[in-house]
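sry for the spam today, last one i promise. struct tokens for design, 149 residues
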């Protein structure tokens, strides 16, 4: 099922963990609609700007899959409102800064520097346009305001 010009449902639901553990990661219709909105409003404009494929590392997560990977109980991934991604050969910080200037979103998180990924969410209603950076501090994940390194 096509969600936008360059994004399909299977890439937004694929999960090695789900496959390994036999977890059904099929999204309900409301999550599919949210994934489509995320793709149309955020990921497709980024793809069009870059002219390069975006590798989605985590999109929709069923509640069971989210628990299996230790995700937050309130994760927007479980609603189809979030995706984690990388773009091979392009700086994550450069991408996040372009997104900050050009797109609307709920949250934009520069996660764990250039060796990590970018998390973006989009939800119906009021968008926060919140930018954060995630880092490990003494073995724990900490979130800081802004896209700083």
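last one done:
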């Amino acid at each position: 099922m096509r969600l936008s010009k360059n994004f399909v449902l299977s890439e937004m639901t694929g999960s090695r963990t789900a496959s390994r553990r036999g977890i059904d990661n099929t999204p309900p219709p409301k999550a599919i609609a949210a994934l489509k909105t995320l793709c149309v409003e955020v990921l497709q404009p980024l793809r069009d700007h870059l002219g390069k494929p975006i590798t989605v590392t985590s999109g929709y997560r069923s509640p069971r899959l989210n628990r299996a990977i230790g995700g937050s109980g309130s994760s927007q991934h479980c609603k189809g409102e979030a995706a984690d991604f990388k773009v091979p050969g392009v700086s994550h910080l450069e991408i996040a800064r372009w997104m900050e200037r050009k797109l609307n979103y709920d949250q934009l998180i520069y996660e764990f520097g250039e060796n990590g990924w970018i998390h973006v969410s989009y939800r119906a209603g009021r968008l926060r346009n919140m930018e954060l950076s995630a880092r490990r501090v003494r073995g724990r994940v900490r979130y800081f305001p802004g896209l700083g390194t």
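Helices lie at 9-13, 16-21, 29-50, 63-68, 92-102. ok im logging off now
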